[in-house]
Amino acid sequence: MLLPLAGCIQSPYHYSFSLIEPYVKNLKYEDGDISFQFTPTAEHIRVSMYNKSENSVYFISDKAEYIDPWGESHNILFGWAFASTMKDFVRNNLYLNSIRIDPKSASEGNIWINIWPGPGADIGEGWVTVADTEIEYLDHGMLPEYAYQGNGTELKDTTFFLMLPVKFDSYMRNYEFTFMITDVEIIDSK
Questions:
Q1: Taking the CB of residue 167, how many other CB atoms lie within 10 A of it?
Q2: pLDDT tens digits, one per residue of 33-63
Q3: What is the torsional sign of CA 86, 67, 44, 122?
Q4: Three-state secondary structure call for residue 128
Q5: Angle at Cα 105 formed by Cα 86 and Cα 81, nearest 5°?
Q6: Per-residue pLDDT tens over the stretch 90-145
């Protein structure tokens, strides 16, 4: 007879967000030069940047910053999947190239917390050859996704901050965004 293991299955948190500074209703901000569309999750923030101008602009990813709800500042990675983005970061000798966005076009991807150099400060030397699944295991979410990662329900009505620097022809602008966690639900895994 098999006995069910109580407490082994963790229910995930589902967060709801709003952009409060600058305030917009649909998590989309735009000015005369660029627009940003955000889709935050516990693990990362999906962002689409659309260049509305007539010249190329550059997202200066190595100067971007995420400040979590506890006030801790983090450097970020930008890409579709954490493992491939981390490998690119390591292959480029810890330097993130600026991301060029051509006129009337978009660049999109996920903003991840950059965990370099990783636990023990020595992980990374072999990351260009290690399996993606091993790197994915080290991914550090922006917010607790499950109860064993922290009490996500305590984060309701807290804020986090994202700073995205963009270089235009003759100047640089740091776009600053403040997000609020407006609700946290525990999703029943049954």
A1: 16
A2: 999 999 999 999 999 999 999 999 999 998 9
A3: positive
A4: coil
A5: 20
A6: 777 666 779 999 999 999 999 998 877 654 444 556 666 777 887 777 777 899 99
Q: Residue 45 and residue 65: Cα distance in Å, rounded?
A: 12
Do residues 19 and 27 touch, judged by C-beta distance below 8 A? yes
Please state, in angstroms and rounded to a whole number, the distance separating the CA atoms of residues 44 and 95. Answer: 20
CA distance 55 to 33: 10
Q: CB of 179 within 8 A of CB of 7?
A: no
On the question of a cis peptide bond just before residue 22, with omega within 30 degrees of 0, the verdict is yes
Q: For the chain, what is the mean pLDDT?
A: 87
**Alpha-carbon gap, residue 80 to 154, rounded angstroms:** 29
Q: What per-residue confidence (pLDDT) applies to 176?
A: 98
Which DSSP symbol is given to 8? -
Confidence (pTM): 0.86
- CB neighbourhood size of 24 (10 A): 15
Please give the structure tokens belonging to residue 3.
Answer: 């006995």
Both tokens of 9, joined, read 């299955």
Rounded-to-integer distance, Cα 90 and Cα 117, Å: 10
Neighbours of 171 (CB within 10 A): 7
Give the single-character DSSP code of 4: P
Domain 13-182 has CATH 3.30.230: no
